[in-house]
Specification:
- It is a single chain.
- The protein is mainly β.
- It has a single domain, classed as Porin.
- The chain contains one helix and twelve strands; from the N terminus they run αββββββββββββ.
- A twelve-stranded antiparallel beta barrel has the order 1-2-3-4-5-6-7-8-9-10-11-12.
- β10 and β11 form a beta hairpin.
- It is globular.
């Protein structure tokens, strides 16, 4: 190999490695949302599982594929499998298909840090067989959101807001909309080199508001909806272009009508592979 060709090969290898490293070092919260997108032409394979526990137990496994249309715009499609355990029995089946898109409209690079913001949207199709609080409905649900993130060598912070527009159930029952607000701080206690395993510890404050409405529970008409606040410790581990995230949401405050159960806890684990 000539000196000129060797230089070109080394330069190409360096650029490819930097692209993979940049992707691996882009972090998003566990339960909240972040502005991270993929590089142009990049592919993300995402697998996860979560469990919610109250008067029912809901366990879902999901798989999603995302594609970087540009360096600031990513689109994805996902589905999964769920198991819902209630007093009346157990339901299992495929969860709804989701179509998602995120666009990063602002980015500011600083020495050793980056700030950015993005908007996102999601369509939840009505083709699922089972889903927690996701009764058979006569149309798609929609979600829109806005997110901000700061990522430094040691400290991280994120903020996001999202609103889900829910269709009524096929039997005419009203399904209230839901709003979520997330504030997150993260820390890397020990700065690492690019090719070393990386650990970021997170603490999230997650607020949820379910729109107040009238519904029917066990044949009785009653008010539904209310507010709930969670404190959520989490961890993200990355190695090159692979990442794993895990966290637990613990309810610290709720304001629901009498007879409406709040979630006791939620647990989540996710795996991501960037190609």
């Amino acid at each position: 190999m000539t000196s000129k060709n060797y230089t070109r090969t080394a330069f190409a290898t360096l650029i490819f490695s930097f692209g993979a490293i940049s992707t691996a070092y882009a972090h998003d919260p566990v339960f909240g949302l972040g502005p991270h997108t993929l590089f142009k032409g990049g592919v993300e394979l995402h697998a996860g599982a979560h469990q919610e526990e109250s008067n029912t137990r809901n366990v879902e496994a999901e798989f999603e594929v995302k594609y970087g249309i540009t360096g600031d715009w990513v689109a994805g499609i996902g589905t999964g499998y769920g198991r819902l355990e209630e007093d009346g029995g157990t339901q299992t089946g495929r969860t709804p298909t989701t179509l998602s898109s995120k666009y990063r409209f602002w980015r500011k690079d600083m020495r050793g840090a980056q700030e950015s913001a993005a908007v996102l949207g999601r369509v939840i199709l009505d083709d699922g067989e089972v889903g927690h609080h996701d009764a058979s409905r006569k149309g798609e649900d929609y979600l829109v959101g806005l997110t901000y993130g700061y990522e430094g060598r040691k400290w991280y912070r994120w903020a996001s807001i999202r609103h889900r527009f829910n269709r009524d159930a096929a039997n005419g029952a009203e399904r209230p909309d839901k709003t979520k607000v997330d504030l997150v701080v993260g820390i890397r206690f020990t700065p690492t080199e690019y090719r070393e395993p990386d650990w970021v510890w997170m603490l999230e404050l997650n607020y949820e508001r379910l729109e107040r409405t009238n519904g029917v529970v066990d044949g009785t008409s009653r008010e539904l909806g209310g507010d709930q606040l969670f404190l959520s410790p989490g961890l993200m581990w990355t190695y090159r272009n692979f990442a794993a995230k895990a966290g637990v949401q613990a309810g610290i405050y709720e304001d629901f009508p009498t007879g409406q159960e709040a979630d006791d806890y939620r647990a989540l684990i996710e795996l991501e592979w960037h190609l």
